[in-house]
Amino acid sequence: MMQVLPIQSAATTKECLPHGRLIVLTGPSGVGKGTLMRVLLQRHPELYYSVSMTTRSPRSGEINGKNYYFVSRSKFEQLVAQGEFLEWAEFAGNYYGTPREVVLNQVNSGKLVVLEIELEGARQIRASFPSAHSIFILPPSFEELEKRIRGRAQDSEEAIARRLRRAQEEIQAADEFDVQIVNDDFETALNALEAELFG
Ligand SMILES: Nc1ncnc2c1ncn2[C@@H]1O[C@H](COP(=O)(O)OP(=O)(O)OP(=O)(O)O)[C@@H](O)[C@H]1O
Ligand SMILES: Nc1nc2c(ncn2[C@@H]2O[C@H](COP(=O)(O)O)[C@@H](O)[C@H]2O)c(=O)[nH]1
Prior knowledge:
By secondary structure, the chain is an alpha/beta fold.
């Protein structure tokens, strides 16, 4: 019988996922990843959603520990140096990272774990965990993406411009991922996502 080893390190090894599964949900800012995740978690509370750490300032209504762990740049850099992240990246002027220990514990205990992260982090996870299932969410058009980011009304004009510039690059990378789902009609996209996660 094949020996099953727990996942311990993403930085140095390529691991298979022994008990649970790791799902990577990526796609450009404003495409609707967070909204899809929120509804998915309501429908499937057994999923484990990894709360990331960021140096971005909280938006109105965001709660520390629920939406993100909000930390200073110096604290984030200290945690990077200590190897506390499974992956991390700088996006639109802020750091974002996935806490290593809690995620590995959840996967090893058999949970279906979802990471909602940007392109560079998603690439790091794919490199470290080739058996992670990666899903890229696409907008129906670039114009619609811009409309959604602006409609969210949460980011400054400069932040919107950075995110849209980055989105061009991100969309071109969609084919690197296992599955692409277009988030045009919300229910259709949600059903496609559920089908990917629960077969
Ligand atoms: N299918 C859809 N049709 C129309 N609007 C949508 C759809 N899906 C999401 N939205 C809206 O688009 C906006 C951006 O969605 P959301 O914040 O979930 O994007 P995101 O991909 O999580 O962005 P970020 O990566 O910046 O966190 C929200 O106002 C949301 O209500
Ligand atoms: N590489 C990582 N990217 C992350 C993580 N948590 C969130 N994100 C992504 O960052 C952008 C911007 O998010 P926003 O909340 O400021 O709009 C978005 O694409 C998120 O998916 C993470 O831990 N690592």
